[in-house]
Specification:
Helices cover 18% and strands 37% of the residues. By secondary structure, it is an alpha+beta fold. The longest helix is centred in the C-terminal third of the chain and has 15 residues.
């Protein structure tokens, strides 16, 4: 009985492998970068029940002050994240890429510390404002050690409240554009940049991308 229980605990702690789903990084200018074939943020997510202030607080506790260490804090995050390794299959001369992630019903976390193994040439998408830029990994690439949180809120009005909560927490933004259907911008503290990207959607729950990005000195 003891051996069976120990095995069950080990299985629960092991990362769940997920194939053929995109991972989300941040490019040099702060936009979201989806790698792996998807073109929309958070397609499989449900809306979080966190209000804007608590959402930003949970993001801060997860991703700062060291974005690269967010994985060690994921297990106690308010988002209820569990380990989930995403597998991007081999294609042509590009080998299989295994990327450590953490997932829940309402959020995904991806940490990037500079490992580009088997990412070059993969299909990418950058949803921003009312457009989506597509191409391949290489010209558009992840930049700086980073913690990427993708979640969903009830609607665009709730997403606008998140931008206000970010300003309340981090001070005046270096750049912030909020229109009727999209929002994006960033805040700077030392060599740390906090980015928000809320692309236009047609209807329903609003996906948003928050990232903390340690910029090279």
């Amino acid at each position: 009985m003891f051996a069976r229980t120990a095995l069950g605990c080990a299985l629960l702690a092991a990362p769940l492998a997920v194939s053929a789903q995109a991972v989300t990084f941040t490019v040099k200018d702060g936009r979201a970068l989806l790698v792996g074939g998807e073109t929309e943020l958070g397609t499989a997510l449900s809306s979080t029940n966190l209000d804007a202030t608590n959402l930003v607080e949970a993001f801060d506790e997860l991703c700062l002050p060291d974005p690269g260490g967010a994985g060690s804090r994921a297990g106690v995050s308010t988002f209820g994240l569990s380990p989930s390794e995403t597998i991007l299959p081999a294609a042509g001369k590009t080998g299989e890429a295994r990327i450590e992630q953490w997932r829940s019903k309402s959020a995904t976390l991806t940490v990037w510390t500079g490992d580009e193994a088997n990412l070059k040439g993969r299909s990418i998408a950058m949803p921003s404002r009312a457009t989506t830029t597509t191409g391949s990994y290489g010209p558009f690439k992840a930049f700086g050690t980073q913690c990427n949180l993708v979640t969903k809120v009830a609607d665009f009005a709730a997403a606008k409240s998140v931008t206000e909560a970010l300003t309340a927490r981090y001070g005046a933004p270096a750049k912030l554009v909020v229109k009727n259907t999209f929002a994006d911008g960033y805040w700077v503290a030392g060599n740390m940049r906090i980015n928000v990207n809320v692309p236009t959607i047609r209807a329903g729950a609003q996906p948003l991308h928050l990232s903390a990005q340690a910029l090279p000195e």
